[in-house]
Design a protein that fits this description.
The protein is α/β, with parallel strands linked by helices. The chain has helices at about 45-60, 65-95, 100-115, 160-170, 185-195, 210-220, 230-245, 265-280, 295-310, 330-345, 400-410, 425-435, 470-475, 490-500, and strands at about 5, 10, 15, 25-30, 30-40, 125-130, 135-145, 145-150, 175, 205, 225-230, 250, 260, 290-295, 350-355, 355-360, 370, 370-375, 390-400, 415, 415-420, 440, 455-460, 475-485. The structure holds 2-aminohexanedioic acid.
């Protein structure tokens, strides 16, 4: 058998093995016989090397004019376009989602890079009047220094781009840990930035596990901030660790998103939205539509048609054009999904379709699960409240909009919500009353665009937003600047002296 390719860390402009020399395997979740490659099993020493490089590079990069930084990023976006198909195929092989979705993932990185590179010529601050004559007052954004990033496997190129590109255009340097299940896509992204001419040490990438790489990165005293996307439990741990070193932390965590289907909805449209929101990426999106609140008047018809569509979804290897849903990411996730199906049954929800691991024929080489729907669920059930991160959708009957909104807001999370209705008044009530970071009208809970703020309330986040203009607030500090050109001590300054 041919030897699998080995992929190194990217530190100080060099592709280097980790200090211990150990590697780990990255295998295809659709076919465990296929090894994508061997990746560095890094540890604290490698993180320290990467942070040192980023600290050194920071001195020059922060002074490099923002429009010039942006030129490099624009070049990177062009290169991503050129490599889009290759990167998408690599991503499907390491992550499982179907090719149309991995193309979309690369496209999000392209969009974000073009969009944020544009900030290189804006990066607006505020110029405001001063209280005094002959004095100027303004506020400017300044970079933080070294930004540490921990990224998930479900959007292996898009999410790193959401973090890295705004950080870079603002003049920060980066140390990023790739997700253990999808390290190849971040190698592709870093190689693209290298090819675009990013100076050495400005971007550093280290692969490995959370405890061995993530934890030392979060603890490191020279890292100014951590941007984390992942589970709520790990996010809480990151927050605790950041508190003790006064690090800024941006957290993007779980979701339990709802689609509310009203009695006046276009049902075909709503079913389509529920299908792709629930089973796209095998339900492994933080924006997945894992709950549906359906009005009793249309419940039966909706359920019948939705189940029928889900039953006919073609599950398989995402590289196959006919396949609509790929595997879940790994054995542990397959187990979690199975466990939740059992919980749902025990709680008394009605399993309407699916519920099983697919293990026959070629399925047995991967981690496949049937598209699964629970009907007649109570909003208090665990399957209606907890994030499963798999192809499981829970349907809850409701009496009307008020109840749907109450159910929608009753969970710990607050990322995305959606309403299907033909009544503009209902739509606006939902827009006003859903306490989620994102609301969709007559569209599913997925499909956020890069130039709008992305993030959620409650246990989903910690008040920050990535993407959109809001991302700059995550990766910069404000500095207020006063310029006094009167040449003398002015009144306000004297007042302050008197106050003392
Ligand atoms: C995620 O699931 O972590 O809106 C991000 C969406 C995608 C991003 C999802 N653009 O579904």
């Amino acid at each position: 058998m041919a030897k699998p390719p080995v992929f190194n860390n990217f530190i100080d402009g060099q592709w280097v093995p980790c200090r211990s020399g150990r590697t780990f395997e990255n295998r295809n979740p659709a076919d465990q016989d296929e090894i994508i490659g061997l990746f560095q099993e890094s540890s604290e020493a490698d993180v320290n090397d990467a942070v040192d490089a980023a600290v050194r590079a920071s001195q020059k990069w922060r002074l490099f004019p923002a429009p010039k930084r942006a030129e490099i990023l624009f070049r990177a976006a062009e290169l991503l376009i050129r490599h889009k198909e290759e990167f998408a195929r690599g991503m499907t092989r390491e992550m499982g989602k179907v090719l149309t979705e991995t193309r979309g993932d690369v496209q999000e990185a392209i969009d974000m890079t073009f969009y944020m590179a544009g900030e290189g010529r804006r990066m607006f601050g505020f110029t405001v009047p001063s209280e005094l004559p002959n004095k100027w007052a303004m506020s400017v954004r300044m970079p933080l220094g070294v930004c540490g990033m921990i990224t998930p496997w479900n959007f292996p190129m898009a999410i790193p781009s959401w973090k890295m590109i705004p950080a870079l255009v603002a003049g920060n340097t980066v140390v990023i840990k790739s997700a253990e299940d999808t390290p190849l896509s971040l190698v592709h992204f870093c190689k693209t930035l290298e090819e675009a001419g990013i100076p050495r040490g400005v971007v550093n990438m280290v692969s490995g596990t959370g405890p061995a790489v993530g934890a030392p990165l979060v603890r490191h005293p020279d890292v100014a901030m951590i941007s984390f996307t992942g589970s709520t439990e790990v996010g809480q741990e990151v927050a605790r660790m950041c508190a003790s070193t006064h690090k800024r932390h941006h957290l993007e965590m779980g979701g339990k998103n709802i689609i509310m289907v009203m009695e006046d909805a276009d049902l075909e449209l709503a079913i389509e939205g529920a299908l792709w929101g629930g089973f796209g990426t095998s339900g492994q999106r933080c924006t997945a539509a894992s709950r549906l609140a359906v009005h009793k008047h249309v419940y039966k018809e909706f359920a019948r048609k939705f189940i029928d569509r889900a039953r006919h979804l073609r599950v398989g290897n995402g590289l196959d054009k006919k396949v609509e849903m790929g595997p879940v990411i790994n054995a542990a996730q397959l187990e979690t999904v199975s466990r939740y199906v059992q919980i749902g049954k025990d709680e008394g929800a009605r399993l309407a379709t699916g519920g099983n691991i697919l293990a026959k024929g070629s399925y047995k080489r991967g981690f496949f699960f049937e598209p699964t729907i629970f009907l007649d669920a109570d909003p208090e059930m665990r399957i209606a409240r907890e994030e499963i991160f798999g192809p499981v959708v829970t349907v809850i009957p409701v009496d009307g909009l008020e109840e749907a909104i109450q159910v929608g807001n009753s969970v710990d999370y607050g990322l995305s919500s959606s309403i299907y209705t033909s009544d503009v008044n209902k739509a606006f009530v939902a827009i006003r009353d859903m306490f989620t970071g994102i609301v969709y009208v007559n569209a599913s809970t997925i499909g956020a665009e890069v130039h709008l703020p992305f993030g959620g309330t409650k246990a989903t986040g910690n008040g920050h937003r990535e993407a959109g203009h809001a991302a700059l607030d995550v990766f910069t500090e404000w500095k207020a600047v006063y310029v006094d050109f009167s040449g003398k001590l002015q009144r306000a300054q004297i007042d302050q002296l008197e106050d003392l």
